[in-house]
Amino acid sequence: MSEPLSIDVIVIGAGAVGENVAGRVVERGLSAVLVESDLVGGECSYWACMPSKALLRPGTVLSAARGVAGAREAVTGALDPQQVLERRTSFTSDWDDSSQEEWVTSTGIILERGWATLTGEREVTISHDDGSGTTYRATHAVVLATGSTPTVPPIDGLADLDYWTTREATSAKEVPASLAVLGGGVAGVELAQAYARLGAEVTVIARSGILGNYPKEASDLVLDALRGEGLTVLTDTATNAVTREDGRFVLDVGDGRTVTAEKLLVSTGRHPNTAGLGLESVGLDPKTLTRDDTGRVPDAGGWLYAVGDAGGVVQLTHQGKYEARVTGDAIAARARGDLGESAADWSAYASTADRAAVPQVVFTDPEIAMVGRTLEQARKDGVNASETSLEIAVAGSALHSDGYTGWAQMVVDEDRKVLVGVTFAGPEVSEMLHAATIAIVGEVPLDRLWHAVPAYPTVSEVWLRLLEKYGL
Ligand SMILES: Cc1cc2nc3c(=O)[nH]c(=O)nc-3n(C[C@H](O)[C@H](O)[C@H](O)COP(=O)(O)OP(=O)(O)OC[C@H]3O[C@@H](n4cnc5c(N)ncnc54)[C@H](O)[C@@H]3O)c2cc1C
Ligand SMILES: NC(=O)c1ccc[n+]([C@@H]2O[C@H](COP(=O)([O-])OP(=O)(O)OC[C@H]3O[C@@H](n4cnc5c(N)ncnc54)[C@H](O)[C@@H]3O)[C@@H](O)[C@H]2O)c1
């Protein structure tokens, strides 16, 4: 066997996160090989963020126009499903990754296509489609950026059926007449609304409520909106078994009730893609991989990192890319001898915001935009927390749309008098989120935040109302 090729850094997985780690280390003078077995760009570009948002956006625009008298009268038709699907396809470049490949190679990163496995400490072997193999040995780091994979519940009959995962739902070429969605998380709820607005008869089956990670007032706004526009949302409903009858999925949801649909989307969460990577060959259990704030896997002895969905901390593109920048910088700093075992909180080498200020948006209509902790999470983390919440009712919201309904909440650390969490729910609230992220990351004292005057008449005036209600 030939000697392994020598390289500074090996990154496994060329999703948004892997691309960013590789890009960062190369910018800092190290050499890097990036390995991808599927499309360069990963889940977000082709089967997740981009296509799902492209499927939702036309419906949101239409409903926004219908929400304003004068514009409403100009809307005389419904969505054109074929046009919506075609526009979605333009955002996925028709599942062609040549432009992403061009970007990767233009940066000086070496791109290798094939399946990568760890075959020893710092050593990765790539199996190419033509049966050949290439082995690299990393001087400084091997980075797992292998993403996540759907978690499919052990429901009777399900494993044998050709159900949709989010991949099929985001890449479908036709709108089914009916769709059952198993799981009331963010992926299920977004795709449920997108398909309902495209004309499918949609039933969501949630074992508890929907969007359980968000404050109930916020998720209830979405629940009411979904039901108001004709989706069936079954909450507190277990799915006992699934069969296929006359070409349709039949879900047994207890008490003799069934849900029948042409397609079934299973969106019941995801777990890190760490199986089949050869982690066992270096004495690691793929199921219990952990990472520190620099991205390093402590049990591996210093050379292995895990970032993005594979790292198992947050499953969001923007946060994964943040981890990628931090880890890329940490690897380069360690290579220079500028960084030891651990990194200080909020330094360039620690992804501290993963613990304190993760922004997340549910792109339904209405939207939920949240950053930091809910009241319950804050108290669980030992924060002496209070909450202030109200309906969004300011001049900006009234102007935005007739009958605007929204809700906002801030969670305050009473000992430090700073924000630790903010949630907005309502039409198009996502663009207000970054102000909250800045306030939390910057630990802006409330009596200074009071001087951040929102422009009139914007929906952001809700900030003023929250601070007034808090007592400022
Ligand atoms: C339907 C849906 C909608 C979403 N919407 C949003 C959103 O709006 N905003 C948001 O922030 N997040 C969203 N997410 C989450 C987001 O998609 C993920 O957090 C993000 O894609 C993770 O990026 P990653 O690079 O870690 O993993 P991935 O994008 O999954 O990339 C991992 C790559 O590694 C490759 N790979 C794996 N193993 C190997 C191997 N052994 N050898 C070679 N290559 C390998 C895979 O082929 C893949 O290309 C959504 C997720 C879903 C499912
Ligand atoms: N807008 C966005 O940023 C966005 C959109 C989609 C997905 N994502 C990311 O992708 C990840 C995956 O999304 P997701 O919605 O699949 O996961 P999720 O963890 O958000 O939701 C999964 C849901 O499935 C439910 N569930 C689990 N097992 C079940 C069972 N046996 N029967 C019924 N329900 C069951 C859970 O209670 C939960 O409500 C999320 O963690 C999220 O970070 C983000």
Automatic annotation (TrEMBL):
NAD(+) binds at residues 183-190, 269. It comes from Arthrobacter pityocampae. One of its GO terms (biological process) is 2-oxoglutarate metabolic process. This is Pyridine nucleotide-disulfide oxidoreductase. Residues 358-463 form the Pyridine nucleotide-disulphide oxidoreductase dimerisation domain. Keywords: FAD, Flavoprotein, NAD, Nucleotide-binding. Its cofactor is FAD. Signal peptide: none annotated. Residues 8-320 form the FAD/NAD(P)-binding domain. Disulfide bonds join 44-49. FAD binds at residues 53, 146-148, 309. The keyword Protein transport does not apply. Belongs to the class-I pyridine nucleotide-disulfide oxidoreductase family. It holds the Pfam family Pyr_redox_2. It comes from the Bacteria. One of its GO terms (molecular function) is flavin adenine dinucleotide binding. Binds 1 FAD per subunit. The keyword Flavoprotein applies.
